[in-house]
């Protein structure tokens, strides 16, 4: 693990992605302290008129929406949904995919056939349409979006982890562990799992990016929680208000934020890929 951290710290691409990611985590944690207004509160002039579609100013850093709401406050509060969906989805995907890959690759036989058969079935399901249908059936809500993402994306990591385990389980150190009387569980999680951690971390990073994109897409299509402020919901509201070209300060911030957060995931994923594959580090 220490070697993994050391290699990651030397990777400028990964460090850049981590800095971006940590920035958004801090914004999400301290969102209530950073946001100057309630994101759903309508702002009024002293004469009682709504502050509708105001450009950025010292009072409203990113302007206001068609309904007179502060865009900066919505962006800050909306970061919590993006970070929450990204982090929880990535952790769940990595946990499920890694464990299924470990078990299938190590035990082989019928266990492998059953688990990989399930993976094959999951590969037959289109990602975004499946997520949209599931959210439509279960209803809007962050937990349902996370469930939809996790149910479909664990398939990718499980197959790759399985392939790695197949190449590891016949190595000398594994045979030595078996001869010493180590249990299957100990061999899996003490001897094999540490060798596949870099690969798992690749999927943690890329799954986070995919989850954020999926949540934003679902919200943009109007299937997100109508009372939950999110970046995708901001885009949907701007589009439905036909203000995409009239108020660029409304639509650009969420688009840029989504791009940066997704980019951070792929940058970290690239770094872990280089760590897992020494040939990439030599380029």
Can you give a write-up of this model?
The protein is mainly alpha-helical and 283 residues long. It has one domain (17-47, 59-281): MetI-like fold. It has twelve helices and no strands. Helix 2 (12-29) packs across helix 4. It is elongated, with a radius of gyration of 22 Å. The chain starts with a helix and ends with a helix. The model has no long low-confidence stretch (mean pLDDT 89). Keywords: Cell membrane, Membrane, Transmembrane, Transmembrane helix, Transport.
How do the helices and strands line up, and which of them pair or pack?
Layout: H1 2-10, H2 12-29, H3 31-34, H4 71-107, H5 109-123, H6 127-138, H7 142-168, H8 172-179, H9 184-220, H10 231-240, H11 248-276, H12 278-281
DSSP summary: helix tally: 12
Please state the oligomeric state of the protein chains shown.
single chain
Stretches where pLDDT is under 50 for at least 5 consecutive residues are none
Average predicted confidence as pLDDT: 89
- Please write the string of helix (H) and strand (E) elements: HHHHHHHHHHHH
Cα distance, first to last residue? 24 Å
Number of strands: 0
Report the helical percentage: over 70%
Largest sheet: none
CATH structural architecture: Orthogonal Bundle
Q: CATH homologous superfamily name?
A: MetI-like
What proportion strand?
Answer: under 5%
Radius of gyration, in angstroms, nearest whole number: 22 Å
> What is the CATH class?
Mainly Alpha
**Overall tally of domains:** 1
Q: Which structural category do the helix and sheet elements fall into? A: mainly alpha
| CATH fold node name | MetI-like fold
Subcellular location: Cell membrane
Main location: membrane
Organism: Dethiosulfatibacter aminovorans DSM 17477
Protein name: Peptide/nickel transport system permease protein
């Amino acid at each position: 693990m220490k070697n993994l951290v050391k290699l990651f710290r030397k990777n400028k691409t990964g460090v850049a992605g981590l800095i971006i990611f940590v920035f958004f985590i801090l914004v999400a944690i301290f969102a209530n302290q950073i946001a100057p207004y309630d994101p759903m509160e309508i702002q009024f002039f002293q004469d009682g008129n709504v502050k509708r579609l105001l450009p950025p100013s010292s009072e409203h850093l990113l302007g206001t929406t068609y309904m007179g709401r502060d865009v900066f406050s919505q962006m800050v509060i909306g970061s919590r949904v993006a970070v929450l969906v990204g982090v929880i989805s990535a952790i769940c995907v990595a946990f499920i995919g890694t464990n299924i890959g470990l078990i299938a690759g190590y035990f082989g036989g019928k266990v492998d056939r059953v688990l990989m058969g399930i993976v094959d079935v999951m590969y037959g399901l289109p990602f975004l349409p499946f997520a949209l249908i599931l959210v439509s059936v279960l209803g809007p809500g962050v937990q349902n979006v996370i469930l939809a993402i996790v149910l479909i994306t664990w398939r990718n990591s499980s197959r790759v982890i399985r392939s790695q385990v197949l190449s590891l389980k016949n190595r000398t150190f594994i045979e030595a562990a078996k001869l010493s009387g180590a249990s299957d569980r100990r061999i899996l999680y003490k001897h094999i799992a540490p060798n596949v951690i870099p690969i798992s971390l690749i999927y943690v990073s890329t799954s986070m990016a995919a989850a954020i994109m999926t949540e934003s897409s679902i919200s943009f299509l109007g299937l997100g929680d109508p009372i939950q402020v999110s970046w995708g919901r901001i885009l949907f509201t701007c589009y439905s208000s036909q203000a995409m070209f009239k108020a660029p300060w409304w639509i650009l911030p969420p688009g840029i934020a989504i791009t940066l957060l997704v980019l951070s995931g792929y940058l970290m994923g690239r770094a872990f890929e280089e760590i897992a594959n020494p040939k990439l580090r030599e380029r």
